[in-house]
Specification:
631 residues, 21 helices, single chain, four-stranded antiparallel β-sheet
């Protein structure tokens, strides 16, 4: 198996299958012992393989699992490598497996049967991709981190320039000698403001290839790659009560308080919460008369976010991202600070003096992730056994979520909680909410004192139309269900599935229900997004037979030959007029040819350099005795 060029891809997929960790967290884990992140081709191969997992499993299980048993699937340790090789053979670009090795020999032995079953699958289902593996496409959402870049217009201008440059580059690379009839319409490079989340920009789906972790704006922390629906948690936390000038004035006049982010890693929601808190506190200090500062309180922030994470690896990621996204209090006017805590939120003592000023808790606990429909590593196993396993997992998750929510409710000074998940299951959403409302413990306090928890409709999302589910597992009333916010990526919301609930103590309850007016937020200077990228997000290609290896179509060739004019007909028609080549056309063609030639030479030089390095490393390894030092 060592000769297989798919070893890295197979190992990456195998780790995901065994540990159920997210693909990105495995691939780009900087704390582990991996030699380095996979290249784009390897990562793309894994993603495409995961998109076809359901198809591959059904092909292997056809005819009473004949192929699964024949190949010896269960006996293979690296099942990820086996999946990758089967994908390459049946659905890959070249419909073949490169390299050699034992796994290839096991698969090729049943190549004819695999191709036949694959063709049957395609004709039966019409598609080979998983529902969770890339079939759904959304616009590219970019949240401007106002803690690092207060001027949104500067970010927009930078992004416009990058998108325009990429469009020109793609046109030069792809058009070649295309005729005017076959040239594609230039992509839309307009940048829109989101209609619900402030400082959230909406870019075309094609921008995903440009905006990645190595982009300057991302590396500097000025923008955050964050899906729209995941912004709803922090937005509800800070602006759930703010919609009009009266509410805003009342909220700003209140004394600043502290927050808890109970399950903070990797930190996108935490940094969004910090940015919104900083914005809500304003810049009133500049106009206010300067007071003499007490000793030791010069750099004390007005609001602190206590960010909990119990997992060591994820805590390291949280710390790194907070340093990137949230400047220290001295650099943001002493408004807000984030204090990462390496610990379990469930073990946090509500009576700890450290949390005496905490009035709000944001809880986004571990969930099934069933709402994430545009990520390749969100897949569902199929079959009766898998259904029982998934049901058991959801039950276990919902029990944990309920315990965490009830613990948040036990903090005596907390008067607002946002509970959210990226799940679409009622057991994890309405079910947890309903049980928390009925099982909440109030200690010595009495409900008559206004201490009881109730659901409130976030005013900042009053124009979001999709709401919670009435009755069902949770048994919620219509008035309660309308306070809940849901997102459905498979039903036109153009964002991943999400669920948000807003709990408020009755004594501070301000809203009585949402008005789904559909009015967009105001965003001066930028057009507001209203579905302009819907068509570009849809897949326009019809499903085709993809499993069989490409063969020369004799019938098609004969029909083409019949359509061509004979030599006698050509003589009767007279000489064919050649298209006149202008100097500008010739210059453009020469430029493109030179560009292609330079690219090819650069690639050859790179290959030669890598080969030389490998040979040098091999020679050094044969001379120097192997030791275990440094492992």
């Amino acid at each position: 198996m060592s000769s297989s060029p798919y070893n890295q891809a197979g190992g990456l997929l195998n780790e995901h299958l065994e540990k159920r960790r997210g693909l990105k967290s495995i691939a780009f884990d900087t704390t582990g012992k991996k030699k380095g992140a996979p290249n784009k081709a390897t990562y793309a191969t894994v993603c495409k393989t995961m998109q076809h997992l359901s198809a591959i499993n059904e092909i292997l299980d056809a005819n009473n699992k004949k192929l699964r048993k024949g190949i010896g699937f269960d006996a293979v340790r690296n099942k990820g490598l086996l999946y990758v090789c089967i994908y390459e053979l049946l659905f890959g670009k070249y419909k073949s497996i490169r390299g050699g090795g034992k796994v290839k020999r096991m698969i090729v032995k049943y190549e004819k049967e695999l191709r036949r079953e694959a063709d049957d699958y395609v004709s039966k289902h019409g598609s080979v991709e998983d529902n969770g593996g890339g079939k759904v496409n959304f616009p590219r959402y970019i949240r401007v981190n106002t803690l690092r870049s207060p001027q949104v217009s500067e970010i927009v201008e930078k992004l416009k320039g990058d998108l325009s440059a990429k469009a020109v580059e793609d046109e030069d690379t792809n058009t070649g000698d295309q005729s005017e009839d076959t040239k594609k319409t230039p992509p839309d490079t307009t940048i829109y403001a989101d209609a619900h989340v402030p400082d959230l920009l909406v870019l075309p789906p094609t921008a995903s290839s440009l905006l990645h972790r190595d982009h300057d704006l991302v590396k500097s922390g000025k923008v955050v790659l964050q899906d729209k629906s995941s912004c709803f948690s922090a937005l509800t936390m800070v602006r759930g009560h703010i919609v009009g000038s009266e509410d805003a004035k009342e909220e700003k006049s209140a004394k600043p308080f502290d927050y808890i982010d109970a399950c903070a890693a990797p930190g996108n929601k935490t940094s969004h919460l910090a940015a919104l808190i900083r914005s809500s506190l304003g810049d009133d200090d500049a106009a206010a008369p300067q007071k003499k500062k007490k000793k030791g309180k010069a750099n004390k922030p007005k609001s602190t976010i206590f960010a909990f994470e119990r997992n060591s690896t994820r805590f390291t990621i949280l710390e790194e991202r907070m340093k990137l996204f949230v400047p220290p209090p001295s650099e943001n006017g002493n408004k807000v600070a984030v204090t990462p805590i390496h610990g379990d939120f469930l073990k946090a003592d509500p009576s700890d003096p450290q949390f005496a000023n905490v009035r709000a808790i944001m809880l986004d606990p571990s969930c099934s992730g069933s709402g994430i429909v545009n990520s390749p590593d969100r897949w569902m196993e199929e079959g009766d056994g898998a259904a029982k396993k998934d049901k058991k997992r959801i039950e276990s998750l919902s029990n944990f979520q309920l315990v965490a929510l009830k613990h948040a409710m036990s903090f005596p000074n907390v008067d607002r909680i946002v509970y959210s998940t990226c799940s679409v299951h009622e057991e994890e959403n309405e079910g947890v909410v309903s049980k928390a409302l009925s099982e909440a413990e109030y200690g010595d306090s009495k409900k008559e004192d206004g201490n009881v928890w109730e659901l409130a409709a976030p005013k900042c999302l009053e124009n979001w139309k999709r709401r919670g589910k009435e009755g069902g597992i949770g048994g919620l009333t219509k008035a309660q269900a309308v306070c809940l916010v849901r997102c459905d990526g498979l039903d036109g919301d153009e964002t991943n599935g999400f669920f948000v609930s807003f709990f408020v103590r009755k004594r501070v309850l301000l809203s009585v229900g949402p008005e789904t007016s559909g009015k967009a937020i105001e965003c001066a200077g930028f057009p507001v997004y209203a579905g302009q990228f819907v068509d570009s997000c849809k897949k326009k290609d019809a499903p085709v037979k993809v499993a069989s290896k490409p063969k020369k179509d004799n019938a098609a060739d004969s029909s083409k030959q019949a359509a061509l004019p004979t030599q006698k007909q050509k003589q009767q028609q007279g000489p064919t007029k050649k298209k006149e080549v202008t100097p500008s056309d010739k210059k453009l063609t020469d430029k493109r040819s030179a560009k292609k030639r330079d690219k090819k030479l650069a690639w050859k030089r790179k290959q030669a350099l890598q080969k030389g390095q490998r040979l040098k490393k091999k020679e050094e390894g044969s001379k120097v005795p192997t030791t275990n030092d440094g492992e």
